[in-house]
Amino acid sequence: MSSHLSADHPAAQPPGNGSVEALISQTRRLRGDVDAVRRGSRDDAADPRGRWQRALYDLALHQLTDLDAHLAQLRDGPAPSPRPGSLLSRVGSAEWNLLTDEAEWSGELFPILGRDPASAPLSLDELPSLVLTEDRPKLTAMVTDCLVDARPIDGEFRVVHPDGAVRTVHMMGEPVLDADGSTASMWAVLRDVSELRRSQRVVSETRDGVRHPPPPPWHALLRFPDEGRPGLDLAAAHLSPTPATALRSRYGGWYDACPLADGDETLLTVGDLEAPGTEAHGPAVLIGALRGLALAGGPPARLRDRLARLTGATALPPVRAALYCGYRPGTRTLSWAHAAGPAPLLFRGGTGHVLSGRDGTSAQDGSSAQDRPSGHAEATLEAGDLLLLHTGALEPEAVEHLLALAPDLTGAESAHHAVAIATRELGELPGRRDACLLVARVMP
């Protein structure tokens, strides 16, 4: 590839191998020291501060490892064929000639952008076709500023690979000027920073856990199965009301996951209690009653009527709204029923929508739609699907905001990560009331 520096920016002389070798030695010593301190730190999965500290250590080690690889490249020169998966294989370069409309890519750039190495490099006009729709304006603005105003490029965008994987790419570039000072081409270095950003998100999420412990008051009485259930990766959170709405948050919310009678099928529930000023143990007592009814047998659609009879005959607070879902891992079948509650949200392939009866399949027991209880529906899920249940305390605009997060939620590597994304975004919305979220990712 031709020189990528204009006459106005002469290249600096590279440092000698001796000074680079000294930097490599210092970096490796520091990496060893950080690793030793990390191994000696607390490793208590139940301690939010310990998780946050360990995540920071892991991020520092990740960055020091990248620095070591960069310095080694300075010392050894560019490798003819970087090892797949290595740092150097995640860094590529390109030049787009504005006079001839030709594009020249390094071999490493093709897999970074999810392109077949045998295909032709894309022009600047074609490049946005690889980028997530919501990131295209950002890329267009960066390229325009570079070509029109000669501003350096330094930004990130996400690309979608043919297998559906979403990768984060950091792009740095500059215009290449001709003898008259006009922009003749644009040169850029692109790096896959997906793993680095994932490490940074873990740090952010664990830090948020230190600042804002999420469990609701009843969590210590009846714990949520954080280890998951057959075929499902589970996570949940309780959203406290904002100070402005605390007095108007009359409903005690709950979430739960427990086995149904056969053991493998799982009951997923979220709901609101109607009694104002409900005591902290109220949801725990109701969850205990639900678990007992679930183990006694019967489909989730019957639970709302049984629970209504139970609360009517006892001192349990009545249910204002609830959603009852049953999941059979063998067939990946989800059935659900409402009790004045919102429908589940399904996220798949970067998009999200509200499930309704139209999404349902035929009943597994052979009954017709007319034979099933009112409000009951079924759907067949797929591996990788993300199911989000929420209480009715979320306002409609909050639900629309969750649906807009579909690319981020489907790209989350775990249910806990998806919950962290949702709670972080919802935490910025004004007027939030007491609410609960439950996320279930369908496992392969």
Describe this entry's structure for a reader.
The chain is an alpha+beta fold. The chain has two domains: 17-197, Beta-Lactamase (2-Layer Sandwich); 214-442, PPM-type phosphatase domain (Phosphatase 2c, domain 1, 4-Layer Sandwich). Helix content is 32%, strand content 24%. It is built from ten helices and 15 strands. It has helices at 17-40, 48-76, 109-112, 136-149, 194-211, 281-295, 300-313, 396-404, 406-410, 415-426, and strands spanning 91-97, 103-105, 153-160, 166-177, 183-192, 232-239, 253-259, 266-273, 319-328, 333-339, 345-348, 351-354, 377-380, 386-390, 435-442. It has a five-stranded antiparallel β-sheet, sandwiched between helices. α1 runs antiparallel to α2 (48-76) and α2 (48-76) runs antiparallel to α5. Mean pLDDT is 77; it is low at 1-14, 81-89, 242-251 and 358-374.
Would you summarize the structure shown here?
The protein is of the alpha+beta class and 444 residues long.
Question: How are the elements arranged and paired?
Answer:
Layout: H1 17-40, H2 48-76, E1 91-97, E2 103-105, H3 109-112, H4 136-149, E3 153-160, E4 166-177, E5 183-192, H5 194-211, E6 232-239, E7 253-259, E8 266-273, H6 281-295, H7 300-313, E9 319-328, E10 333-339, E11 345-348, E12 351-354, E13 377-380, E14 386-390, H8 396-404, H9 406-410, H10 415-426, E15 435-442
Antiparallel strand pairs: 1-2, 1-5, 3-4, 4-5, 6-15, 7-8, 8-9, 9-10, 10-13, 11-12, 11-14, 14-15
Helix pairs in contact: 1-2, 2-5, 6-7
